[in-house]
Each structure stands twice: as C-alpha cells, then as structure tokens.
C-alpha cells in the first residue's frame, strides 16, 4: 500500500521512515512538513495510508482531514492525548501518541484495511477501535527489539513473561528474550483471552497450563509459576 507522512518534526519523520522501512509492507511515496504540500500528491496519486501529525504549520492535521472528501486511511501522530476522541470521530484507524515504540507502530499497521478487505459495516472509527482493542487486543505476533534488530515472536510460543530487575523476560519453550518493556506493557499488548497477570512478577499464557496445584500453576514444560494472592480469585473465576 502507498503511504505518505505529514510531519513537521524531523526526528518524528525519521522514526516513521525507519519503521515503515523495517516492516516492508508499505511504499512510502513522500514526506511533507505541512498539509498543503501533501494536497497535490493526494490529488494526483493513489494513497492508501496517511501518517498525519496534528500540530502542523498553516493548517492543523485535524482541520486538514476535515477538508478531504475521500481521505485515505489515517493514522494520527501527536504528543497530545486530548485529541484522541475527535480523531476517532473522524474515523481514523489509530492514534499514535509520541514517543511510540515499534511494537505500538505494528499494532496500528495491523488495523489497516488492505485493498481486498471488506469495510466494517455500521461502525464508527471509535466503535471499531474499541472493538479491536477489547476483542482482538492487538496482534498474534509481537516484535522484540534486540540491538538493531527486531525479532518476530508468535504469541502462541510464549509460555510466560516475568520481571527481571529493569527488564522483562519472555520465556519460550527452549529460549528466552529480554525486553526493556514493562510487565504492564505486555498486559496491554498480548491477547487478553490467552494471557493473564497471575502474580506481581508474572504474566502467563493460559493455553500452556498443565495443572493448577494449590498456589502454583504447572505448565506443559513442567515449569512452576506461583499464583499471587491478589490475583488468584480472578484467575479461578476466568479459567477454572
């Protein structure tokens, strides 16, 4: 899909360009520092996705979007959260709050409709966003930053995630990966119908449970994970 960036801050431009290059599924047609510069390419070429900053010179991103009769899919980027509701009322795909991680960028990209995808019927942008957040809750794949690389991991392969000092460890069957993201971050990113916080230091893939024994959960690989007292009732209600 063809995309453009409308962003007047050079660091933010560079980050978006790098992320677009890394995923390899978008073709960046052009980068513009104000909305009026981008008008010509929108009128002359088929643009599928627009990364649009809200605070722009001459004309704000929100006001620019309101002038477009048939806008492409829009992902808003801004450092200010107070415009989120207005953005979704304009049927934007997602709202990236700066600074955003590559993982959060991937989440936004996963919500884009490909040219062959059916359009959701009778759903506003806000309703669609809420539904995706609650039910799909993000992708079935995640990316872990390791040095200059991003490692793709299927969420089904994760057994559990635990806190390790300033890092979190993602444990797979035969390996583990260190991440600088917090446990709270993984709670928000991972599919909620599979993953659950069962201790202040652990998130568990509930599909990997072999048995529950007292205050411990035994996984398929015979690893034992403690159940925190504050989390046990919720765990038992949801899965037992």
Commentary on this structure:
The structure is a single chain. By secondary structure, the protein is an alpha/beta fold. It folds into two domains: 2-136, 3-Layer(aba) Sandwich (Rossmann fold); 141-239, LytTr DNA-binding domain (OB fold (Dihydrolipoamide Acetyltransferase, E2P)), CATH 2.40.50. It is 32% helix and 32% strand. The protein has helices at residues 10-23, 35-44, 61-67, 84-89, 102-110, 125-136, 183-189, 229-239, and strands at 2-6, 27-32, 49-53, 73-78, 94-97, 141-146, 149-154, 158-164, 167-172, 176-179, 195-199, 202-205, 209-213, 216-219, 224-226. Strand 13 (209-213) and strand 14 (216-219) form a beta hairpin. The longest helix is centred in the first third of the chain and has 14 residues, at 10-23. It is elongated and about 65 Å long. Residues 117-139 have low confidence and may be disordered.
